[in-house]
Amino acid sequence: MTIGIVGLPNVGKSTMFNALTKNQVLAANYPFATIEPNVGVVPLPDERLTRLSEIFSSERILNATVDFVDIAGIVRGASEGEGLGNQFLANIREADAICQVIRGFVDDDVVHVDGKISPADDIDTINTELILADLQTLEKARPRIEKEVKGKRAPAEQLTAIDAATEILEGGRTLYQAMQADKFDVSALRELQLMTVKPFLYVFNVDDEVLADEDKKNEMRALVAPVEAIFLDAKFESELAELDEEEAREMLESTGQEESGLDQLARVGFDTLGLQTYLTAGPKESRAWTIPKGATAPRRPESSIPTSRRASSRPKSYRSTISTRTVRWLLRSPPARSGWKARTTSWSTATSWSSGLTS
Ligand code: GDP
């Protein structure tokens, strides 16, 4: 599953995407991830894996991953084919979620396409293009579906859903906003591949002062609520991604940040895609596996697994499912773990361990 990065020109998309690709996982460790030039496959941070790898003396750690796709720039009029309009819309259709980068930094040397820095207007411009594209799709589909409903080849709810969606979009809201705020049900519209039903996340590319200014951040949060906003300084993240782990931690600490913006982005992105992990550990590797939220292990999101690999991408021989309590104990009391460890072999632990467990 992928997250498409969109945003107006000169907001820092490429800078952020470059930082993501510098930060990306080694292809050799992830044989079933296709790493293409416009895709950044980044690790989902998980301290529990580090602890598990210490406990089991694992040879390697395999984090879950989040795929970000760099989507060519959007400009006003994209829905009518302006700029790279059509290509842009086709790329968005393929993404499972949309990450909009919004410019919050001020720099007179970097022009803003609209001549002023206004996060609210930027969000509006992108939303408007996606809304217009969806309205076109609905308008095109309506006569066909009306015929099908008359001929009893489609359920009447489909037509009702088209009209309700049209009304929401004409009111200037995305369908995702309506899903979030009013539990608008889009199930009858699935075949139309609408763009504004996709989950959104927002990255505000800001400078130091804004990062430290909760009031300013709250103003920006209010623009996208209830969707979570991420604040980062793309230039800084790009520099951070070039350092080794130790140096990066020092640099982060010096700025008073606990987590890098890219780590936050990976976490929120993973959550937005509706995914969770479960963990396995042994001497060979400590690993986070991706499953849809609410699913039991081991089930990966089918759409992201090439058919030929579906069976083989599961852990082959894990022996027992251990309880959350045992995992907690293992993590809390490393000295007591050796006896337990001796009774387990290679794929020794598997637990459906949702993100709720953090300590
Ligand atoms: P894109 O068109 O959205 O891909 O934007 P780019 O990533 O190419 O950035 C446009 C310009 O803004 C470049 O000159 C970047 O160096 C600069 N830039 C990007 N992020 C920041 C930032 O956080 N602060 C400042 N001051 N400049 C930035």
In the predicted model, the low-confidence regions spanning at least 5 consecutive residues are 303-321, 333-359
- Total beta strand runs: 10
- What is the strand content? 15-25%
Spatially, the strands of the biggest sheet line up as: 2-4-1-5-6-7
Our Rg estimate from Cα atoms comes to: 23 Å
Number of helices: 13
Largest sheet: 6 strands, mixed
Shape: globular
The helix fraction, in percent, is 25-40%
Pfam families: MMR_HSR1 (PF01926)
Region (Disordered): 289-321
Protein name: OBG-type G domain-containing protein
Keywords: ATP-binding, Magnesium, Nucleotide-binding
Jot down its keywords.
359 residues; alpha/beta; six-stranded mixed sheet; four-stranded mixed sheet; 13 helices; 10 strands; 40% helix; globular; disordered C terminus; binds guanosine-5'-diphosphate
Outline of this structure?
With 359 residues, the protein is α/β, with parallel strands linked by helices. The chain has helices spanning 13-22, 47-56, 85-94, 119-150, 156-170, 175-182, 208-211, 214-224, 234-240, 245-254, 261-272, 324-332, 338-342; strands at 2-6, 39-43, 60-62, 65-70, 97-103, 200-205, 229-232, 275-281, 285-292, 349-351.
